[in-house]
Amino acid sequence: MDATILDLRYRMKDVLRALDRNEKVTILYHGKPRGFITPHTAPTGKRVAEHPFFNLRRDGGPAEEQMEKLRGDRYRDL
Question: Strands, DSSP E only, in 1-71?
Fold first, then answer.
C-alpha cells in the first residue's frame, strides 16, 4: 500500500488495516518514496539452543570446518 503524509494523518485506520493484512506500507512525500512501515511479526518461538552454532559439538568434525559452513562465503581469504 502507498500512503502519503495526509493519508497517515486522516486515514490511519486504513493504514493499520493494511498492516493487519501483513502489507508493507510505502510512505510517499511529494510522490517519492521516503520510507516504509512494515508489519510486526510474531516471535517464531525458536529457542536459542536450536541455533546451528550450539550444535557444533554434536555434529562432530573440527570446529573450523563447522564455522566455515555457518559463515558461508563472507570470510573467505583471497
Answer: 2-4, 25-29, 32-37
